[in-house]
Amino acid sequence: MAEVQAVKDLDTVKLISYLLKRTYGQQIADVWDVGLNLALRISDLLSIKFENIHDERLTLVEGKTSKQATIKLNDKARSIIGRIKEEHPEHIYLFQSYRNQWSKGLDEAPISRRYVSRAFAAIGEEVGIKLGTHSMRKTRGYHLYKNTNDIARVMKMLRHSSEAVTLRYIGITQEDVDRDFAELEL
């Protein structure tokens, strides 16, 4: 699998959402916007069922680690989730595939990881970034680190156990760390 990047410019984050909506529709743009706000792996993001959302929290067991994740939903995530629920009250999954409208007898399922991946990659080419499904998670981690300079906090949010892995994951290079030391004089 090709290495994907965090989106480091906030205007580009918004542009990607706009381009996804324009090219692929609201649902894929919602995957991007909710994914940015929840920092989940794509398999976990797509597996979210409305029954996993209680009050202002999302609770699920992560597929990769089997760890329980309890995430407080911010205003943007709650707003998008509320709109989706209102528009599709019969849906089981937050990002449910519409294929069932045409294929009777199939069980409900979320949209495919492959479809999301292809959409993101195509928009990434358009904006000149190696964009993939992990870009949402990496982007959130990157911006949390830039806002707080607290790698432990980023590690906790991403549920990582190694600083080095987290720094590499969010795209913080030794050059970035050196620049932070040089620029911050106390």
Describe the overall structure.
The protein is mainly alpha-helical. It has a single domain, classed as Orthogonal Bundle (hpI Integrase, Chain A). Helices cover 54% and strands 6% of the residues. The chain has a three-stranded antiparallel beta sheet with strand order 1-2-3, with no helix packed on it. β1 and β2 form a beta hairpin. The longest helix has 15 residues. The chain is globular and about 65 Å long. One of its GO terms (biological process) is DNA recombination. This is Site-specific integrase. Keywords: DNA integration, DNA recombination. GO terms for molecular function: DNA binding.
Q: Name the CATH superfamily classification.
A: Intergrase catalytic core
Low-confidence stretches: none
Helix share of residues? Answer: 40-55%
Task: Tell me the strand order in the biggest sheet.
Answer: 1-2-3
Helix tally?
Answer: 9
Distance between the termini: 42 Å
SSE pattern, N- to C-terminal? HHHEEEHHHHHH
**% residues in beta strands:** 5-15%
Derived structural class: mainly alpha
Which of globular, elongated, flat, extended, rod-shaped describes the shape? Answer: globular
Indicate the CATH architecture.
Answer: Orthogonal Bundle
How many beta-strand elements?
3
Largest sheet: 3 strands, antiparallel
Mean pLDDT: 90
CATH fold-level assignment: hpI Integrase, Chain A
